[in-house]
Fold this protein.
Amino acid sequence: MDIKSLSLDELKTEVVKLGEKPYRAKQLYEWMHVKLARSYGEMTNLPKDLREKLSEDYEYISLKEVTVQTSGLDGTKKYLFELADGNLVESVWMQYHHGNSVCISSQVGCRMGCRFCASTLDGLERNLTPSEMLDQIYAISRSTGERVSNVVVMGTGEPLDNYDNLLRFIHMVTDENGLNISQRNITVSTCGIVEYMKRLADQKLQITLALSLHGSTQEKRRELMPVANRYDISEVIDACRYYFDQTGRRVTFEYSLVGGVNDTDEDAENLCRLIDGLNCHVNLIPVNPIKERDYVGSERKDVLRFQKKLEKRHINATIRREMGRDIDGACGQLRRRHGIGSE
Ligand code: SAH
């Protein structure tokens, strides 16, 4: 059993099963989720025989830092972690005026197949457990010695394709007995799996939902994102509206601009029509080229022109600051460079 994925209540049940007093669960939980211990050995206020029993029966997930690259431009750090089974995942640390953000992966690989994305080139290997998602944050927090205030689930993987683990992760990372990060400081980004967007909406959490749109018509979107074959763009937008209605949270649209593909005036006009009247925010970013594909990022002037078009129609649009330009491969490239892409 993976002890770091258990809630405090579940932990109490386990501890009692071992013949211990329930308050030991609270101590254990605190070691794992507040003090960010890397092993049972560090839990010095727990009796030695309890620690021994735990290490026999309960796996303790603690990610191993393989590499860390630091940007000379803005201090952004890109981490590569090794999981217990040898798989690798990447996570990013970013510092903003409003606090420190960590971008985590939710799966090893991805099966969504977005054409411009490096994370999906070899398909899905497996889902990450709640503890493996948490420990990306814990390991980075330990390594930087700083508090993490924001979490974005925007690394490798499709979080809504790993829904149950994602939900448990969200509950644990926002738990007042753990890191206690505010729900409002958590963003989950999805390529648009409609039924899970609705299920998430029904949870009525205060997290931000980001929808990777990247195209303003069904045809354009389908060119870039195979998931669009499963859900029509109108269903996806309806699910965003539903998310807002259920939660009161403004939805973010991610729009990666691909030169000559989705960055024309017509694209911008279609986008305005598509999201007209929706309480939302658009994040624009020139696509980060990957060597396996021919796509190029839109030129600066085209990005600005696109943004202006949206703003004229009173749609809130920001150009996402590209952090860690000098250390960044596009999403998933770091992991590939380490041979996991079997090159
Ligand atoms: N699967 C989720 C979250 C992971 S991807 C999703 O699709 O939203 C995080 C964001 O990065 C998504 O908006 C994704 O479309 C975008 N992305 C992936 N590769 C990119 C690239 N090469 N350049 C720019 N954005 C990219």
